[in-house]
């Protein structure tokens, strides 16, 4: 997952840049063919809020911070990804995938928002070796009374007035 482009990168954003760049370089060194894809989340509440604060159209603001992101990544000697898709360019695919998750019972809609139903996927956390309960312990969990479970997370947020 790539950055949400509403501000300059900070240490927390730089960490995955360095980690994935190191992994990519190592795999290439070991002879693997690597196609590195890093998305930009250029549609998000944080971007909309920042665009309203700064009086700039949201996609233009996101593009400005994408350009700043590349400057910072270049300064850190991070190799550019092979592909940098933007969320705004894949809305139809996001909607279709989200609908499939709803149809299969892995997601649910509440007032136009769609949440991923974590407990519907019995192996959730297997890759990281952590149980859902472990993930909750000490984690930042967005409080939303509309969610079925605290661990569920938003896949889609409906447009808000204004």
Structure notes:
This protein folds into two domains: 11-87, no CATH class; 91-156, no CATH class. By secondary structure, the protein is mainly α. It has helices spanning 11-29, 45-54, 58-75, 91-103, 132-136, and strands at residues 107-110, 113-116, 153-156. Helix 2 crosses helix 3 (58-75). Strand 1 (107-110) and strand 2 form a beta hairpin. The mean pLDDT is 91. The chain is built from five helices and three strands; from the N terminus they run ααααββαβ. It has a three-stranded antiparallel sheet, covered by helices on one side. The longest helix is centred in the first third of the chain and has 19 residues, at 11-29.
Mean pLDDT: 91
Return the string of H and E elements. Answer: HHHHEEHE
Please summarize the sheet with the most strands: 3 strands, antiparallel
The share of residues in helices is 40-55%
**Number of domains in the coordinates?**
2
What is the alpha-carbon Rg in Å? 18 Å
Oligomeric grouping of the chains? single chain
Query: What is the number of E strands?
Result: 3
User: Strand percentage, roughly?
Assistant: 5-15%
Give the class from helix and strand content and strand pairing.
mainly alpha
Stretches where pLDDT is under 50 for at least 5 consecutive residues are: none
Numbering strands along the chain, what is their spatial order in the largest sheet?
1-2-3
The number of distinct helices, counting runs of at least 4 residues, comes to: 5
């Amino acid at each position: 997952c790539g950055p949400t482009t509403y501000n300059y990168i900070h240490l927390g954003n730089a960490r995955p840049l360095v980690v994935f760049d190191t992994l990519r370089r190592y795999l290439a060194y070991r002879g693997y063919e690597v196609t590195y894809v890093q998305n930009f989340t250029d549609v998000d509440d944080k971007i909309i809020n920042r665009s309203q604060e700064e009086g700039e159209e949201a996609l233009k603001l996101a593009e400005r911070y994408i350009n700043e992101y590349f400057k910072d990544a270049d300064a850190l000697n991070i190799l550019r990804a092979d592909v940098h898709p933007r969320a705004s360019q894949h809305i139809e695919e996001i909607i279709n995938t989200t609908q499939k998750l709803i149809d299969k019972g892995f997601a649910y809609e509440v007032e136009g928002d769609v949440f991923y139903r974590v407990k519907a996927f019995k192996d959730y956390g297997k890759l990281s070796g952590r149980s859902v309960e472990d993930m909750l312990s000490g984690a930042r969990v967005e409080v939303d009374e509309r969610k079925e479970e605290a661990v569920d997370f938003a896949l889609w947020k409906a447009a808000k007035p204004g």
